Amino acid sequence: MIAEAGHYALVLALGLALIQSVVPMIGARTHDVALMNVARSTALAQLLFVGLSFLALVTLHVTSDFSVTNVYENSHSLKPLIYKITGVWGNHEGSMLLWVSILALFGGLVAVFGGNLPLTLRANALAVQAWVSSAFYLFILLTSNPFLRIANPPLEGRDLNPVLQDPGLAVHPPLLYLGYVGFSISFSFAVAALIEGRIDAAWARWVRPWTLMAWIFLTLGIAMGSYWAYYELGWGGWWFWDPVENASLMPWLAGTALLHSAVVMEKRNALKVWTMLLAILTFSLSLLGTFLVRSGVLTSVHAFATDPTRGVFILLILCLFIGGSLALYAWRASSLKQGGLFAPISREGALVLNNLLLTTACATVFVGTLYPLALEVLTGERISVGAPFFNLTFAPLFVPLLLALPFGPMLAWKRGDMVAAAQRLYAAGIAALVTMAVLWAWTRGGAAFAPLAIGLAVFVIAGSLSDLAERCMLFRVPLSVALRRARGLPRATWGTVFAHAGVGIALIGIVCESTWNTELITTLKPGDVAKVAGYEMKLDDIAQRQGPNFREMVVHFTVSEGGRVIGAMAPSKRNFTTRAASTTEAALMSRGASQLYASLGEPSANGGIAVRIYHKPMVLLIWFGPLLMAFGGFLSLTDRRLRVGAPKPAKASRALQPAE
Amino acid sequence: MSLWFLLALMTAVAVFAVLWPLGRRTARGGGGRESLVYTDQLAEIDREVASGLISPADGGAARVEIGRRLLAAADAEAGSTAAVRLGWRRAVALVALIGLPLAAGGLYLRLGSPAMPDVPLASRKAASVASASIDQLIGQVQAHLEKNPTDGRGWSVLAPVLVRVGRFDDAAQAYRNAIQYAGDDAARRAGLGEALTGAANGVVTADAKAEFERAVKRDAGEAKANYFLGVAAEQDGRPRDAAAIWRAMLAKAPADAPWRPVVTAALARVDSGKTPVAKSQASPGKGPALADDTIASAKDMSEADRGSMIRGMVARLAARLKQNGDDVDGWLRLVRAYMVLNEPDKSRAARDDARRALGQDEAGLRQLNEGLKALGIDG
Questions:
Q1: ipTM over cut 0.90
Q2: Total of domains in chain B
Q3: Which of A474, A578, B128, B304 has the fewest CB neighbours in a 10 Å radius?
Q4: Sheet harboring A518-524: ordered strands across?
Q5: A12 and B33: CB-CB below 8 Å?
Q6: Whether this model's pTM surpasses 0.90
Q7: For testing contact with chain A, the best of B4, B7, B100, B133 (most A CBs within 10 A)
């Protein structure tokens, strides 16, 4: 009964979505309040039914009901409870159900919290949201239905892909989807505004917080996915420029641009039409990401869908929404009222530069990801565009972005003063130069770019901090006054500081890890000692162990530094009989922000085992940076004030400081 | 609570969600207005100036800007009014009341299987503790054999169990390993043949037949091999040879041989089915293969034997009907056989095939429909 009720709930949600996608629009056209309010109640009912449907699937997985094909194919009765639950979204059908559940969740949030929106805007936006949901409900019901049954239930399921049986997977997809799908709100609002033919101030107020929320989740999701790849795949790498990773990076880059242009729009009523285009592009890239991962176009861990009908269906959805919204934009955008003006050197100008660089970076990733696919379709030739391409194109775009980053917050709205901003960044510049010089001296003869890049990172961090110092007038007023001012600063300002510093911190991690990473691949026998970066690792024994649904070979190491034992590491290799697959479980030992990383290879004939050992300096900063960015975003999100950017008056005295 | 009640309840909630706002009296349905945002912004500027976050001069400039926008927005809002469109509302209510349940119900009935109960593991474990524990045992033995792949005795133990649970491909591999490590003997060769037959859905393939022949060469009295050689002969269309093999078996067998009923039943089958078409038309109840008593007698056989036997028979019947489609009783038997085998899809397909094959034959069609009704598959 649970399976069938869940199935029916999904069908009902489709019915409601279809009503929601038409009725409110009629209401908005005819100015009928009741018809427009249908959007609200149907959005909530949709959330209820999709939620029920999702809960039903979770229950089926937990009770191991193998009469449901999806459960049979992806679960096993001996799997630990947590992986029975996460297995729900560890497969194609279930993850699509999660996708629409989150879409319905956001629809419900708009319905609940949209009380202060103009009625027609809310009705139209929810209707657009319902178009997207309808398309995806149909996709699920017709091509990837998780509730199909097997007449003769098999005794045992086929188990979840072992690589995915990991706590990282429990949070990575939901976070990523919250990000992807969160951008649907700004998309729906943009399309609704295009349909109405006007962008009002309420629109501008709404887009930034919702974009910010999606951006926070996407940031966390990408960081989580990267960390998962780092410790689960056993290669010691954390970013592979894999098309699936790029698929999540593209909406992130576009979303970051959108976030910044939304600030301009909210505060200064400028850049409205451009923000709208970014909103459409960002969600389009999210859809593209879904397409790339879900259609089976790419063959990787993530592409568990290899059914061509699905690919064609998603491609249709993609063409319909991206093509439709861009066509609508081309048709209506020119009739929209442009916003305020600003001088090139101003906060707005800096944010435009940020937007240009971010969208260009996004475009390079787009080309690098899709060019091989296009080439394969056209000529049948298979090429892979890897790290070298992205390092060559991505880095040159990010260097000016990071150089300009500290200047942005220092400039005044409408018309800024470059010289004054530069003066305030003296301290940051000096800090960066000193860092470079020290590193240069310390690592003489090493990589030449590393000290430069770290200097840049320090510049970004120090720049953010000096922005903070400026605003609370540190060193110019007594410390107690400065502290009071700091407390009085809007949380959005603190958010900016944290997020920008996070970028610098992540950069330090990336540079250190890729420049001073030590790697040792060797075969060890019990009793052997491996020496890596000043650490000695002694292999104590190789043992076999039985897990709940796997058998594993565990190798115990004792780690010592300078003769002093500092801990033990136990990497393992797991064999999952049901899927006849094995996974490597790397062992990690953190020393400050650096990590020792050990993962196992194949056992050799003479009783030894191949081991890869890495020492990765400052590697944890790579994920600490994004965490900090997300925290900054969160701070800014909790700031419930209205955002108004006071313009710099044309002839104001220089002593006055611009502020939030 | 029955499923249908639950589905009806859910439908009611969905319909209500659409109707509710339509019925409510909303004078000016709330909603924010653009001018409100600007007045809020003005208030915010005042607060920021008061708390010293921006200078009074900056605040003044901002106020001028916002005031200009406020005026424009207020002008635009003056023109808009709310309206009541009763015609549209009635149409939407109708769609919700009739269209939504019909569409949802229709789509669900196409996609769902409302008749199927849930089969959570807990309930199934209670129902068949034996099979569940067999599964665990198999797992343990397999794990053991993974570490000691040359343990011939282990493979010999595992192989027949795998046949029993229907994992024929694994079973065939296990028998091959057993033959390699524990020695070649008649029983293992016959077992391998049985596994291959099972993997081919009950058809004795050339490979399987070769194994049975090898088994008989080693031990002429090997019962399983002899039985399946009979089945092979029957499937090759030589029922007389099959009968001869089985008679010889029965003649030599001790009275309490466990496989006696199976062979007797098989013999009865070929004896009565010498001219299957003619005879079945004469007395439909006692048609050749697939009468209930045959299936019942097969209950004593091992699961695999029975499954392969029945499947073999069904496959032959289906093949015959494909060549000669105007045998109404044959079609009915096929439909029923698929129902007994718990394969409703195939049974439905057989029904459709029957209709197509009978085509113009109106009397035959009527007979078919009545028979289907009697089987509980309505026309």
A1: no
A2: 3
A3: B128
A4: A518-524, A609-616, A594-603, A587-591
A5: no
A6: no
A7: B7
